[in-house]
Amino acid sequence: MEGGGSSSKYFILVHGLGHGAWCWYKVVTMLRSEGHRVTALDLAASGVHPARIDEVHSFEDYSWPLLDAVAAAPASERLVLVGHSFGGLSLALAMERFPDKISVAVFIAAAMPCVGKHIGITTELMREKAPKDLLMDSKMIPINNKQGPGTAILLGPNFLAERGYPLSPAEDLNLAKSLVRPANQFVDDPMLKDDKLLTSANYGSVKKVCLMATEDELKELQRYMITLSPGAEVEEIAGADHAVMCSRPRELSDLLAKIGSKYD
């Protein structure tokens, strides 16, 4: 999903685990209607991206559609990167690689890594601090890539209804149930275990805004991650579930436009 023409800001939107560009359809429409340029990406083996999950051999491969999009953006056009949930990890990688091309990064109910710790710590913290039954009826699927055997997650319909989309319109929940794909968290990927990957000079130099959904069950975990990144701005969206772009699209779009204007 891409928008062209004259616009005041360029937003690149990155989905969360198992999702795709489709989940941003309301926000894309609203931002474009206000004259902004917007690209909503499918990361590798997500959304309508043609790769199968076994063909995506690393976290870098998974994030490559975002890295390509940022690299291809004109040098004169500083970007507003927006990541939801697990998408925050791919945002961090792009920020480390291209800090001068990004005016601000917005983490929406998202994993927000910090300098000095490996980015996989966000997944480890979720396992430690989240409810034991967090994944509910989600299925674990064996996969095999060049890094060896692993496990993918297919988010279950009850999980989506109760943890992801409880306050979102029924049509958005049904869309998610139809379109989610198995997802790899890359827990054994060396990149996610490298505590020197994110540097103060690059990742640490990019302005960060953390958007918290007040009705998200993982908001306390997000609060903890914020304490690891002093200087990050914090905003809240009232009445939003984890799928903020579906439960509160108008509020989210307005806030993204406001953030984009603030960080010229």
Description of the structure:
The chain has 264 residues and is α/β, with parallel strands linked by helices. The chain has one domain (10-262): Alpha/Beta hydrolase fold, catalytic domain (Rossmann fold). It is built from 9 helices and 9 strands. A 6-stranded parallel β-sheet has the order 2-1-3-4-8-9, with helices on both faces. It has a 3-stranded antiparallel β-sheet with strand order 5-6-7, with no helix packed on it. The chain is globular. The relative contact order is 0.17. GO terms for molecular function: methyl indole-3-acetate esterase activity; methyl jasmonate esterase activity; methyl salicylate esterase activity.
SSE layout and pairings?
Layout: E1 10-14, H1 25-33, E2 37-41, H2 59-72, E3 79-84, H3 87-97, E4 102-108, H4 121-129, E5 139-145, E6 148-154, H5 157-164, H6 170-179, E7 183-184, E8 208-213, H7 219-227, E9 233-237, H8 244-247, H9 249-262
Parallel strand pairs: 1-2, 1-3, 3-4, 4-8, 8-9
Antiparallel strand pairs: 5-6, 6-7
Radius of gyration: 17 Å
Q: CATH H level: which superfamily? A: Alpha/Beta hydrolase fold, catalytic domain
CATH architecture: 3-Layer(aba) Sandwich
Structural class per helix/strand content? alpha/beta
What's the order of the H and E elements?
EHEHEHEHEEHHEEHEHH
Low-confidence stretches: 3-7
Give the C-level CATH assignment: Alpha Beta
Fold-level CATH name: Rossmann fold
Instruction: Kindly estimate the percentage of residues that lie in beta strands according to DSSP.
Output: 15-25%
Question: Main β-sheet: number of strands, strand sense, barrel status?
Answer: 6 strands, parallel
* Strand order, sheet with most strands: 2-1-3-4-8-9
First-to-last CA distance: 24 Å
Tally of helical runs: 9
Spatial shape: globular
Please report the total strand number as a whole number.
Answer: 9
Portion of residues within helices: 25-40%
**How many domains, in number, for the residues?**
1
The pLDDT mean sits at 93
